[in-house]
Amino acid sequence: MNKATRLQTKDYILIGIFSILIYAVNAIVGSILTPVIGAAAMPLIAGFCLFFSAIVYLVMAMKVSKRGALLVQSIVNGLVYTLMGVPLMLVFFALAGLFGEAVLFRGAGTQYRRLTRQSLAYAVYGCFYGMGTSVTIYVYGSGYLSGMFDADTLDRMLYFAYSPAWIAASLLFAFGMTLLGSGFASRLLNKHFIKAGVIR
Amino acid sequence: MRVVFDPRTQLLVVLVTSVAVFWAGMDKVWMVTLFMAAYLLVQGIYVPVLKYLILAALLLGLQELLNRGGSGALSSLRFLNYLGLRFMPVMMGAGSLGRVPSGKLISALATLRLPRGLLISLAVCFRFMPVIRLEHEAIQVSARLRGVSFTSPVNWLRPLRTYEYTIMPLLMRSMKISDELAASATVKGIDDPGPKTSIHRIAFGLQDYLVLAAYACLLAAVF
Questions:
Q1: Which of B30, B85, B135, B144 has the fewest CB atoms below 10 angstroms from its CB?
Q2: Residue A181: C-alpha distances to residues A47, A59, A124, A174 (Å)
Q3: Cβ distance A130 to A47 under 8 Å?
Q4: Membrane-crossing residues (chain A) (predicted)?
């Protein structure tokens, strides 16, 4: 990789700032929706979070336009989750980031500037993101979470985590909502950033 | 007198707290919260501590009320309340870490031999947490003047447009801050491949050992 396609210090700074923005958007949307649809459809919340955070990711991805941006963003988010007490998420998000990067891998380098490819990469990452809570339950078991959640909530989380229908719905919904969010984001990007020349 | 801890101690306190709040019983979490309050106070962080403690008291009161309620939406609210109470000590620790100057944080984290790029992203990410809130508040002042703030219930009827008016200025500001930080770092020679020196002295002091020992004793009592 030459210097033009390798991540530079300014890229790492941008990724650091936008990673925490993505985390904040996801956390805020998740907190607002949990009391509303948490009891009925908890696994779908991630899809809504991704819908709203897609714009943040796309601005970052289009500004950086280099290999590794999604992976570094995933690792930084994983480290934030590690600090929140779930170190497993570091490995999980790194893996999700790698799958997302795989979507972007083929091409001469211009693919990193294409909204469709970046949207698809974020949607693949989003599928994994949507499975985060379930994977925590699979790996740590319900014992780890029993002190954290009341019995009622934990029962519901276990039901959602082990129900094949809910797993499939969660994956499809996260993928679809991320693409939908990317569509919305593309419109905003054209309206605010590309027209203004902030992103070329 | 303000006590200054090594950033690695602060990071360790956050990491240990994040695991401790998972394992501690709900009736013991308040002990961790009180310890974190004392930890912030010795660092000269007074007003945020007061806010955290008031919020903790409110959440505790709400928890009592919700425990008497039934299931459904109340159960989800109880879940959020649980999360709020459990993660408050982590937020308090992270708040202290967020006040460490970026240069000092990078110097301290460099001793952990993390990849340099990741280290920069991580340091910026920690430092940017409190900045987001300040930027967001400034943006909302303007948004309220123009009647497009999400705090106005009438705008909840147009969620996408309200989101656009909230996130776009924040993204613009974030890009500008990122450019300024990058320029500042370049001027300070961050791209130079040679070994880096720092104006900040990075070393464990007596205060670090004392706070870690006190925390270990508290956690032993909690578990």
A1: B144
A2: 9, 13, 13, 10
A3: yes
A4: 12-33, 39-61, 68-84, 90-108, 120-140, 160-185
Domain residue spans of chain B:
1-101+200-223, 115-198
pLDDT at residue B72, as a whole number: 60
Per-window interface: A 97-156 vs B, CB < 8 A: 144, 147-150, 152-153
- The verdict on A28 touching B (C-beta cutoff 8 Å) is no
Amino acid type, B17: T
In angstroms and rounded to an integer, the radius of gyration of the C-alpha atoms of chain B is 21
Instruction: Give pLDDT tens digits for A123-174.
Output: 999 999 988 888 888 887 777 666 666 677 778 888 998 999 999 999 999 9
Q: Which long-range contacts (CB under 8 A, 24 or more apart) does B176-181 make?
A: B177/A17, B177/B128, B177/B131, B177/B135, B178/A10, B178/A13, B178/A14, B178/A17, B178/A18, B179/A10, B181/A13, B181/A17, B181/B102, B181/B124
User: Average pLDDT, whole number, for chain A?
Assistant: 89
User: Domains of chain A: which residue ranges?
Assistant: 9-194
- Name every chain B residue with its beta carbon within 8 A of the beta carbon of A43: none
Q: Given an 8 Å threshold on Cβ–Cβ distance, is B128 in contact with A20?
A: yes
Interchain proximity B76–A15, CB inside 8 Å: no
CB-CB neighbors (< 8 A) of B114 in chain A: none
What letters, b where the CB count within 10 A reaches 16 and e where it falls short, cover A124-152?
bbbbbbbbbbbbbbeeeeeebbebbbbeb
Distance from CA of A146 to the nearest CA of B (A): 9
Q: How far apart are CA A98 and CA A109, in angstroms?
A: 17
CATH architecture of A9-194: Orthogonal Bundle (1.10)
Rounded to an integer, what is the distance from CA A99 to the centroid of its chain?
12
Give the distance from residue B82's alpha carbon to the nearest chain A alpha carbon, in angstroms.
Answer: 7
Nearest to A70, CA basis, from A135, A9, A18, A139: A18
Name every chain B residue with its beta carbon within 8 A of the beta carbon of A85: 18-19, 21-22, 90
Answer whether A12 sits within 8 Å of B120, measured CB to CB.
yes
Compute how many other C-beta atoms are within 10 angstroms of the C-beta atom of residue B70. 9
For residue B175, give how far its alpha carbon lies from the nearest alpha carbon of chain A (Å). 7
Q: And the tokens for B53?
A: 């403690």
Q: Which residue has the tokens 């082990």?
A: A162
